[in-house]
């Protein structure tokens, strides 16, 4: 059992969570991203990697979700493996795992095992389906989670299959961010009461929660339960995307009347264009807007709308985005060790954040973690595995 301790600032640490210790049991997707966010905010995150590798076919040195962390390698199936993780948990404030329900318990590092050593610990569980329910033991990925919540069915044109929003909506918005909110709330409770708890963060729960406003609009009759027919789902001709003469796209969000007036003026939309309030004529209005956008290139239209309140912007690629003047001025993206990546967010006036270190290579932090966390010398983490297997995979 651990005693309450005063958080100490790890040398070189920055951010509002400096002094908070986090153990991350290696997984894929939303768990590592949540741990990265905590690390970006200044927490001392120790990632416990498996001997057979991280589970993704990506060079560990380029996996930016492992930035600002340290890594140790522990074989949880070895005789002393669970004890090594419990030694870390005893000294930690937070532990994050993304196994299927029951796996952590079978490995000997479940909530009861950890709380026996550290009752103040916040134990964060990241899954797709949650800890209970008919699908709890099923494998899954982002697209399945957002499909069942109704979120995927809202996205895309009505005459086409639903559009896949990468894995941003489920894994990261409905998963990682809700896990981090839950962990921070539970950490506040633990510091106030001395009692830790389990945070059950399921992607289906978080994604459903994200659609709260839409459900309210649906109940009020302001949203149709089909895609491409509503104000914010592409059904509205002044809230959507349009192809330009060079095969690129512009995004339009001119919802308010004054912004719409500015938009139509700069677009050169004829005065006889259909009234925007007449939803029956939205197809005609869309065609008129589309024809105008097809008359010039994306960059030409960008110049036309520059400096206006027309709520119109170019659709940029991932490689183009860091060079946009506004994002460059705000340093929204940063370069670290030759990798262009999003900078930590949000921003803090008194406790600024930064990319302090690049991606943690498996096992590279074993010695420093043992020293800084005061681990028993005979049960410290193992050194790095010389040949990690990038094909290892553990779906949520």
Please tell me about this protein's structure.
This protein is α/β, with parallel strands linked by helices. The protein has helices at residues 30-40, 81-91, 103-107, 111-117, 142-148, 168-193, 203-210, 212-219, 257-267, 282-293, 298-305, 325-330, 366-372; strands spanning 21-25, 44-49, 69-73, 94-97, 122-127, 197-202, 239-243, 249-253, 312-314, 333-336, 339-342. It is built from 13 helices and eleven strands. It has a six-stranded parallel β-sheet with strand order 3-2-1-4-5-6, sandwiched between helices. Helix 6 packs across helix 7 (203-210). The chain starts with 20 loop residues before the first strand and ends in a 24-residue tail after the last helix.
Q: How many strands appear in the DSSP assignment?
A: 11
What would you call the structural class?
A: alpha/beta
How far the N terminus sits from the C terminus, by CA atoms, comes to 30 Å
Q: Encode the helix/strand succession as letters.
A: EHEEHEHHEHHEHHEEHHHEHEEH
Total helices: the number is 13
Question: Strand portion, in percent?
Answer: 5-15%
What does the average pLDDT come to? Answer: 92
The coarse overall form would be elongated
> What characterizes the major β-sheet?
6 strands, parallel
Q: If strands are numbered along the chain, what order do they take across the biggest sheet?
A: 3-2-1-4-5-6
Q: Which range best describes the helical content: under 10%, 10-25%, 25-40%, 40-55%, 55-70% or over 70%?
A: 25-40%
Q: Compute the gyration radius: what is it?
A: 24 Å
Low-pLDDT sequence parts:
1-13, 384-396
């Amino acid at each position: 059992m651990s005693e309450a301790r005063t958080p100490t600032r790890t040398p070189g640490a920055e951010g509002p969570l400096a002094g908070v210790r986090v153990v991350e049991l290696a997984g894929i997707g939303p768990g590592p991203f949540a741990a990265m966010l905590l690390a970006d905010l200044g927490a001392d995150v120790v990632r416990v990697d498996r001997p057979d590798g991280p589970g993704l076919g990506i060079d560990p040195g380029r996996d930016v979700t492992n930035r600002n962390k340290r890594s140790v390698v522990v074989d949880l199936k070895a005789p002393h493996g669970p004890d090594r993780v419990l030694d870390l948990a005893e000294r930690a404030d937070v532990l994050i795992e993304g196994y299927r329900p029951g796996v952590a318990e079978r490995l000997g590092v479940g909530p009861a095992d950890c709380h026996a050593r550290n009752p103040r610990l916040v134990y964060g569980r990241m899954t797709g389906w949650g800890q209970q329910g008919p699908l709890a033991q099923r494998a899954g990925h982002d697209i399945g989670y957002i499909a069942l919540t109704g979120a995927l069915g809202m996205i895309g044109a009505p005459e086409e299959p639903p559009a896949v929003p990468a894995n941003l909506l489920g894994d990261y918005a409905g998963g990682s961010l809700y896990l981090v909110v839950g962990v921070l709330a539970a950490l506040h409770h633990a510091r106030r009461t001395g009692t830790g708890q389990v945070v059950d963060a399921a992607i289906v729960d978080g994604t459903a929660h994200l659609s709260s406003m839409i459900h309210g609009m649906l109940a009020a009759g302001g949203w149709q339960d089909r895609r491409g027919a509503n104000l914010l789902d592409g059904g509205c001709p002044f809230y959507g995307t349009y192809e330009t003469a060079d095969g690129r796209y512009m995004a339009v969000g001119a919802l308010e009347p004054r912004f719409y007036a500015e938009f139509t003026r700069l677009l050169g939309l004829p005065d006889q264009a259909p009234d925007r309030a007449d939803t029956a004529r939205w197809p005609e209005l869309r065609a008129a807007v589309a024809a105008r956008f097809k008359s010039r290139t994306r960059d030409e239209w960008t110049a036309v709308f520059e400096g206006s309140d027309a709520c119109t912007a170019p659709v940029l690629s991932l490689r183009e985005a860091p060079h946009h003047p506004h994002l460059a001025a705000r340093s929204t993206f940063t370069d670290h060790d030759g990798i262009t990546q999003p900078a930590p967010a949000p921003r803090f006036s008194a406790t600024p954040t930064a990319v302090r270190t690049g991606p943690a290579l498996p096992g590279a932090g074993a010695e420093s973690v043992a020293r800084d966390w005061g681990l028993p010398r005979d049960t410290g983490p193992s050194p790095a595995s010389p040949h990690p297997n990038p094909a290892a995979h553990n779906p949520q």
